[in-house]
Every structure is written in structure tokens, then in C-alpha cells.
Amino acid sequence: MVLKIRDIDQTQAPLLDHLVELRTRLLRCVLALAVAFAVCFYFANEIFAILVRPLAGAFPAGTDARLVYTKLYEAFFVEIKVAIFAAFFVTFPIIANQLWAFVAPGLYAKEKRAFLPFLLATPVLFIAGASLAYFIVMPTAFRWFLGFQGEVVDGLTQEALPAMGDYLDLVMRFILAFGISFLLPVLMLLLNRAGIITREQFATSRRFVVVGIFVVAAVATPPDVVSQLILAIPLMILFEGSLLLMPREKKAEEEKAEEAKQEALPSPAPAEQAGGSEPAPTPPAAS
User: How confident is the model over 128-173, as pLDDT tens digits?
Assistant: First the structure.
């Protein structure tokens, strides 16, 4: 038996409306991503040149800096990866706007006011983390990696010949790792606002959080202490700053009690209907 649209109960119609709207939002996101990919693919060489600057500046003066590719198709796929990577960055405001436009109608005004700051803070924190990786971490790490060049023993020398694909993967790993890690305050404040984890619970778990931060820094960065510290120290600062922004438990309980008190206030009594409670008229006295 084939289920047709007209056979669906009318109470499920709003679900279909939401699915249609979701499809429309997704199509707009895909269309924007496709257009951005086409434009970024046209300028793929210029974008890749920007990503190569930290490596070019890390080579010692007078060194013949080169990027090689060991597979015939590697350079082409590098351009595709660069275009996709750049297209996601360019279209993120559009994707976020479509997501917000789909979710916002189902939220109360108070929920919108609570959620909107997190939506605005997400790209700012991600860009801050990516900028830290691009301007500070990558040049420092690349200079350390290139320091292994030179004579080893018996006249043998070792030379760095980074491949295009491997270098792009490393750069994307740096930028994504630092950008996503800097979203820690958004995650913490959302968990606190939702009532899942309180400020006191975060504070008492500080030692475990510090260990987790250093584990993430060790996994997300190259195996040098400097890069790990450059990621771990800002994350610890963001963790402590997030604790300062969280309301203390007593204050939060007072706010919830005040809201409950306001909701429990009795509504004004409705006006009495005419004739419903008026005293019955006195019958006239018998003559």
C-alpha cells in the first residue's frame, strides 16, 4: 500500500511544513556553497599563496624554498581542497543565518535573547583561534621543523622538501584545531545556561579540565612543547574567563525563584457577569 500525502492525518501537516522549510534552507546553503566553491577555485592559487606565507617566512634567508608534489594529480586536488576550505569560511555567515532562520521561530523571545549571543560569539572566537594559529603558532612550529636541515654525518645532508598535499593538511589541521578549541567558552556557557553543569561543578573539576586541555593540545598540535603551550595557555585563560561569566549558584537559584514567583502570581479575577451574582429582587408587599 502506497502512502499518499492526502492520507496523512492533518495533525502531522506542520511536520511536513517544517521538512519543506528545512529542504529550502539546505538548498540555499548548498547553492551558496557551490557558488563560493566556484569563485574560490578560480582564485585557488592566490588563496594557497596566502596559506604558504608562514612556511615561506620560516625558511632561513638564502635558502631555496620549494614545495613539491610527488603524484601527478596532487597539485590539482590541492586546489580543490583549498577551494572547499575557503568556500566553507566564506559561506559560514549564510549557513549560520539559514540555521538561525529555521530554529528561531520555534523559540520564545527569552530563549532567542539567550541563544543569540552564542551565535554571534562563535565566528569571533573561531577567527581568533585561527588567527593565533596562522600568525604565531605556524611560523614558530615551521621554524622548529626546518631547524633539522643541515649536515648530519660524513658529509650527508638532510633537506626539507615539503609536499603540497601534506603541507595543506597540516595547515588545515592547525586552523581547525585552534578555531574549534577556542569555542570552549561557548560550550561551557551553553551547558551552564541549560542547567546541565553548574559553575561550582566546573570549578571543582578544574584539575581534570587542565589535564584534558593539555591532552587536546598534544593531539592537535605538532610534537613540540612550544606549540602545545601556545594552545594550552589560551584555553586555560578562556576556561577561567568562562567561569567568571557564569552566575553563581545562589544567584541563579534566586533568579529562578523570582521567575517562579512571578508565574505563580494569581491572575486578576474576571469581572462578574451581569445578573449572575446580583441579589434577587424583593417581592412587593401584599396590599
Answer: 999 999 999 899 889 988 888 876 767 778 888 899 999 999 999 9
Tally of helices (H runs) and strands (E runs) in the chain: 11, 2
Max mean pLDDT among 8-17, 226-235, 268-277 falls in 226-235
Residues 101 and 112 in one domain: no
222 CB-side CA count, 13 A: 20
Domain count, the chain: 2
How far the first Cα of the chain sits from its last, in Å, is 85
Task: For 72-114, write each residue's pLDDT tens digit.
Answer: 999 999 999 999 999 999 999 899 899 888 888 888 888 788 7
Residues 112 and 248 in one domain: yes
* pTM for the structure as a whole: 0.76
| Domain encompassing residue 101 | 15-60+72-106
Task: Report pLDDT for 78.
Answer: 95
Distance CA 212, CA 187 (A): 15
Q: What span, in angstroms and rounded, lies between the C-alpha atoms of 140 and 138?
A: 5
| Closest by Cα among 139, 130, 122 to 86 | 130
**Is 259 among the domain residues?**
no
Q: How far apart are CA 16 and CA 20, in angstroms?
A: 6
Statement to judge: residues 95 and 218 lie in one domain: no
> Distance (Å, rounded) from C-alpha 194 to C-alpha 251?
15
Q: What is the DSSP letter of 163?
A: B
**Same domain for 83 and 165?**
no
